[in-house]
Amino acid sequence: MSSTLLVSTRKGLFSYRDNGGRLTNAESAFLGDPVTISLHDHRDGATYAALRLGHFGCKLHRRERDGTWREIASPAYPEKPADAVVMRDPMRGEEVPWKVDQIWALAVDYAQTARCGAAPFRAACSTRPTAARPGRSTRRCGTFRRAPSG
Amino acid sequence: MPLVRFTPSLQRHVSAPDVRVEGATVRDALTQIFSITPALRSYLVDEQGGLRKHVTVFVDGSPVRDRVRLSDALRPDSDVDVMQALSGG
């Protein structure tokens, strides 16, 4: 069984395969864009890559089995409640914005879901909807749904 | 109708040609554009609906004042430029 190493960098995503004891570059994607974390889901062969575009924010992409990368909706915080507690950066004293800044963790679990942690607040989790298990969400969650095309 | 133009740096991610849309405010114009090209929304505004920190909009050469509600008024012949903001030192 071959192994694949995903390397997420500020300059893109690079995957390497074990080729008889030597790692060889199998794919490069998102060249020039910061990739904060990536994940291979062994259950369906999909790979996820979270980007943090300097101007255009946090983005999530999914690589299908055929090698095509597609942008899917990135997890997002729900609408900020009017009575939300204001959190401040302890060093700068600035208000922490109620917006996903970056995805810092991705993981699969045993319930047909993929979960992620998102800054600046505590971990946000997301579920990937399936036919048998429509997307569910909890506080500070967004669903893994495909981005609208257009 | 106001003319809306987008920074070339955005085109690498989402196709966004110049477009004329009806609208009395910047929000009106963007709402129409997002209905035409939904993928643009997350690139220009955050999940709370405000302009992204490093995105800026100019109306007839002046930056919008209301980055949260995008209530700046448009004239029928306004030129609206959506650009990436330059920041840092």
Describe the structure concisely:
The complex is a heterodimer of chains A (150) and B (89). Chain A has 150 residues and is an all-beta fold.
Key words describing this protein structure:
heterodimer, A: 150 residues, 9 strands, B: alpha+beta
Molecular structure report:
The complex is a heterodimer of chains A (150) and B (89). With 150 residues, chain A is mainly β. A 4-stranded antiparallel sheet of chain A has the order 4-5-6-7, with no helix packed on it. In chain A, a hairpin with a 5-residue loop joins β6 and β7. The C terminus of chain A is likely disordered. By secondary structure, chain B is of the alpha+beta class. Chain B has a 5-stranded mixed sheet. In chain B, β3 and β4 form a beta hairpin. The model of chain B has no long low-confidence stretch (mean pLDDT 94). Classes of the chains: A mainly beta (150), B alpha+beta (89). Chains A and B meet through loops of A and α3 of B.
Characterize the largest beta sheet of chain A: strand count, sense, and whether it forms a barrel: 4 strands, antiparallel
The structural class of chain A is mainly beta
**Considering DSSP H and I runs of 4 or more, what fraction of the residues of chain A is helical?**
under 10%
Poorly predicted spans of chain B: none
**Biggest sheet: strand arrangement of chain A:** 4-5-6-7
- Supply Rg of chain B: 12 Å
Find the biggest chain interface. Answer: A-B, 22 and 20 residues
How far from one another are the termini of chain A?
A: 39 Å
Write the layout of secondary structure elements.
The complex is a heterodimer of chains A (150) and B (89).
Chain A: E1 4-9, E2 12-19, E3 22-29, E4 35-41, E5 46-53, E6 57-63, E7 69-72, E8 102-108, E9 114-119
Antiparallel strand pairs in A: 1-2, 2-3, 4-5, 5-6, 6-7, 8-9
Chain B: E1 3-6, H1 8-11, E2 19-20, H2 26-36, H3 41-44, E3 55-59, E4 62-63, E5 79-84
Parallel strand pairs in B: 1-5
Antiparallel strand pairs in B: 1-2, 3-4, 3-5
